[in-house]
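Quick one:
INPUT:
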C-alpha cells in the first residue's frame, strides 16, 4: 500500500521538530531517510506510528492515520522497530515474538508465522526459551524485526537498525530486510546513519535537515552524487 505524507508537522510540547514534511512511498518500495543527528528522522517515524502528536496528513493505502492511537495504527498494518530495539529483556525470545501478534487472531496462522520468522532468523529458533536480554546485540535486533513481522505489516518502520552492531552483522541484517521486502512486498521506511548501506537496498531516499526535506530522489542518484554525499551524508563516493 502506498504511504502518503503531506505537510507533516510534529514535535514535543512546544518544540517543533518537523516543519511540513511531504513524501510518498510506493507499495513494496524501500525508502531511506537520511540526515545528520537532530534532523528529525526519529520524530518522523514516531509521527507515522502515532507515538507523537502530529498535524498534516498521513495515509496508508488511502486510509488516514493522522490522529489515531499507536494501537489503531498497528492494527492497520504499521509496525515500528524503534531505535534501541525495544525488546522486553526479561521475557523470552518466544514471548517477545508472540507479543508482535497482539492485534491478530487465528492461532494456526500465528504458529505458521513463527516458523516463517525462523526462516529469516534461524538463530532465534534455538533460543526461543532464552531471555531476550541474554542475546547479543545483533540477535536482539533480529528479534525486534521478527517481532514486528509477526504483525504481518504492510508498512515496516526501522529506526537505526545498525546501531551498535558490527559491520558484518549489519550487512547480514540489511540483506534480510531486502529479502523480506522482495518476498513479502512489505513497504519499508528505514532511518539509518550508515547512508551508503541504506542507499544500497533502497529505491528512493529523502535527506532531512532541521526538520525539513532538503533533498529527494532515487537512491542510485543520491548515492552517486559526490557533492551530495560529502555535504549531507558524511562519506565520499
Amino acid at each position: 500500500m502506498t504511504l502518503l505524507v503531506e505537510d507533516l508537522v510534529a514535535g514535543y510540547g512546544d518544540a517543533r521538530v518537523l516543519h511540513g514534511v511531504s513524501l510518498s512511498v510506493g507499495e513494496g518500495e524501500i525508502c531511506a531517510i537520511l540526515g545528520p543527528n537532530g534532523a528529525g528522522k526519529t520524530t518522523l517515524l514516531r509521527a507515522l506510528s502515532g507515538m507523537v502528536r502530529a498535524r498534516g496528513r498521513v495515509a496508508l493505502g488511502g486510509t488516514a492515520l493522522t490522529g489515531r492511537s499507536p494501537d489503531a495504527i498497528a492494527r492497520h498494518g504499521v509496525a515500528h522497530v524503534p531505535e534501541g530495539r525495544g525488546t522486553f529483556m526479561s521475557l523470552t525470545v518466544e514471548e517477545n515474538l508472540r507479543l508482535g501478534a497482539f492485534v491478530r487472531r487465528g492461532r494456526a496462522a500465528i504458529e505458521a508465522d513463527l516458523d516463517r520468522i525462523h526462516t529469516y532468523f534461524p538463530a532465534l529458533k534455538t533460543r526461543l526459551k532464552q531471555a531476550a536480554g541474554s542475546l547479543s546485540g545483533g540477535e536482539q535486533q533480529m528479534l525486534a524485526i521478527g517481532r514486528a513481522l509477526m504483525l504481518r505489516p504492510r508498512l515496516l518502520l526501522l529506526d537505526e537498525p545498525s546501531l551498535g552492531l558490527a559491520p558484518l552483522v549489519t550487512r547480514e541484517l540489511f540483506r534480510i530486510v531486502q529479502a523480506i521486502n522482495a518476498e513479502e512486498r512489505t513497504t519499508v521506511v528505514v532511518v539509518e546513519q550508515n547512508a551508503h548501506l541504506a542507499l544500497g537496498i533502497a529505491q528512493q531516499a529523502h535527506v532531512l535537515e532541521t526538520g525539513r526535506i532538503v533533498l529527494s530522489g532515487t537512491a542510485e542518484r543520491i548515492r552517486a552524487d559526490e557533492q551530495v554525499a560529502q555535504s549531507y551524508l558524511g562519506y565520499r563516493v
